[in-house]
Amino acid sequence: MMSQTPPRKIRLVQIGFGNIGMRRTRITKEHRAIELAGVVDIDRDRLNLAREIVGESCLLGVDYLDVLRRARADAAIISTPNYLHAPMTIACLDLGAHVLCEKPLAVNAALAARCVDRAGRLGLRLKVGSNHRYFRGVREALARVRAGAIGPLTRISGEIGHLLPNVASEWYREKEHSGGGAMIDHGPHLIDAVGQILRVSDGDHIARVRGATSRESLHLEVEDRATGTLVTARGKTIDIATTWSDGAYRMKLEILGEQGRIVVDGFEPLLIERREGVERLDLSHTPPGESWEMDVEDFVDAILFGHEPYASGVDGMRSVRVIDALYESARRESAEVVV
User: Fold this and answer.
1) DSSP alpha helices (H): ranges in 147-234?
2) Which terminal Cβ of the chain has fewer Cβ within 10 Å, N or C?
3) pTM of the complete model
């Protein structure tokens, strides 16, 4: 990671100033390698709040293309409703801006592939917002798997979710704007983690899936709970669940190997269980916001040094492909679907 301030700062525009956009802005405006050049939102009240945070020198506006041009932006962060991710990503790339787009990269795999193709042809960096990659438990688990601590992998199970806020007008409850419910909301984080685990162990990947969705708890237009059984090219089985209705925030992963298991439980202790005994790592001292800061730092490094981001557009596209297949399986009453 970068240790010194570059000779010229990256001129960045924040597109979308909701909860996540505000979180991103508080980080980027203090970053030594970033000049926060603009903030965009269609809500004037949010722009007034942005002005209080970013000061008078930062451009504000409701038209993201106009602000990008006037700000002479080198990069953009897109924190908008899901259905806008792909078209905004492509438009920003076409204006010569590197892009960090929140997950999911797109509401379907075809659009995600267009984003990846455009970034590649233009030689620009495309990163998908994946702060869960930087959870200390996830990073440590990956390091242990890579080192062979639990031997060859045999099975993975995972669950992620939180209670949905009771705000009926929120866009993520509307399929036209969100692309789906709990699966497309939380699923990218879990599927991304599973994909990393498979790749660092033996290069395996998800090949086929069966999925199911439910709307019985919250009775929304989109699912409040989704489950999936994923099978890899080498025959490993992964069981996942994503939820808006089963309780407070959680992200749990159990990674089983021939010589032990690793359990990641959000920000709680990491458990490594082997024949030699049980090891517990206390992760409760993790600084607030660390994963978000590392996510931005990786984007900056990718731009300055010209390498692919740690969570690249290709990674985001892979996750959307799996989600597409899970939704297709659910529509076909849990029939097996090839990824």
Assistant:
1) 175-178, 182-201
2) N
3) 0.95
